[in-house]
Amino acid sequence: MDKAERLLEYSAGGMGAAEWWALFFRYVADPRKRVLMNELLKYEEGIAMAGQELLRVSLSERWRAWRESEFKYKLDRQSDMVEAHREGERLGLEKGRAEGERMVYEERRETARRLKALGLSADQIAAATGLGPGELP
Fold it and tell me: pTM to 2 decimals?
């Protein structure tokens, strides 16, 4: 194929099928050699058919790449949604845990107020509620 470049010095009419095919395979993807490719089509019908097939394969490859890209995009979005859901659950659990701890603390303080009203000592109230000396009402 590297030697195909030397064939550019000759006209397509002065070559044989092997040279035409060598030029075709060497330059088929080079848009600057479009004129040469069109000239080769005049001499070799098989080159025209090969060009059509390459175009079809190229289009199906682009379609496959597009579908693969679309599939990856959907998987990424799904992964993002799962991650967001997990993060939401984590934040919700943290918030719920904090709210639950706040409610338990308030209930203990309310219990401490009632025990104080009944005349219990600070030590008895602290032992009953688990509150520290600075937390007693």
Answer: 0.44
